[in-house]
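Handoff note, outgoing to incoming analyst
You'll be picking up this chain. Sequence as last confirmed:
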Amino acid sequence: MKMFRQIGAVTAMNFRSLPQRVSTSLVVVIGIAGVVAVLVSVLAMSTGLIRTMQSTGRDDRAIVMRNGSIAETSSALDRNSAKLILDAEGIKRDADGNPITSAETMRILSLRKKQDDAEINVILRGVGPKMLEVRPELKIIEGRMFQPAVTEVIVGKAAHSQFKGLNVGDVVNSRGANWTVVGVFETGGDAHESSLMTYAETLISIDQRGAFQSVTALLESPSAFQAFKDSLSANPALAVDVIREREYYQQQSKTMSTIISVIAYVVGGIMAVGAVFAALNTMYSAVSARLQEIATLRALGFGSTAMVVSVLAEALVLALIGGVIGALIAWLFFNGNTVSTSGGGMGQMVFELAVSPPLMILGVVWACIIGVLGGLFPAMRAARLPVAMALRAV
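Most recent structure output, in case you need it:
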């Protein structure tokens, strides 16, 4: 009990002397706030990308690609294979008994960003005539739907907001055709809003491919997926891979989100090292300025534990203040901001930065670790300093 009273008394004395050390204390707070703000804001890119991809797709939709394909862009399905897929078990059918599927193809269009005029690649997706039944979440919010056999496109809301030349009536120039923008669509904020869409047969005709790249099927229910997959796997005329749509888009986001996370921790780690040294310098200065006080307390019978805990507590509080400030800065200035980045096989992906509560907590924890590391050695110095030497140093 005596030790706790000593710790409380010494720690209170430390905090009462903080107004005399405002400038040095601010160095720690500002440095750690900067580390946390950068770390959280960069990780918010990864969180936003993952959130967008996880919202893409449904458990009762499946994507069929050529066996061994890692993405739709690397897949190819001939027309005979696409027809055989329509006969598989588990596919939902319309009132006339026709399977609700969309045989699709893709190509890359070169566009420019509104923000900095940088050239980027955007996906133009060719879809089947039952696209609206396969994707009932797709809604036209401006203009109209494209017409078959005409070089018309509709653009996703996110692409429309980020890239140039995508207003209704604009013409997108590309190899083989000039595409007229006739509408803008939304799909609930998922990955498709970063792309353009047109009729698949029109795109195939222009590109002279003669084949699709994938087939998206609406299933009778999520539980029908296994029957659908088994039916296709058992057909010797087909060599395809089947995956739930939601799982497919989650897999597509893994590589990019991992790269972003690595960058965040590398940059944050480098800045954290600088913040640790700033904290070390500040806490060493604080201990040096209080040598006489520490020696007097030790002479009065205060133990070394009280010295260590008091210095660590001061460093931790300063770090905590910096961490909270940094997390709030990241939330105020970056949360909800729309950015775009290369999505690999998905072309340019547009998504919102997401400064989530777990990210903010992570930033504060990171700050506390910096504070402990920055205060540990000065605290040990204060505890080990002989009373006579401390008194002579004043």
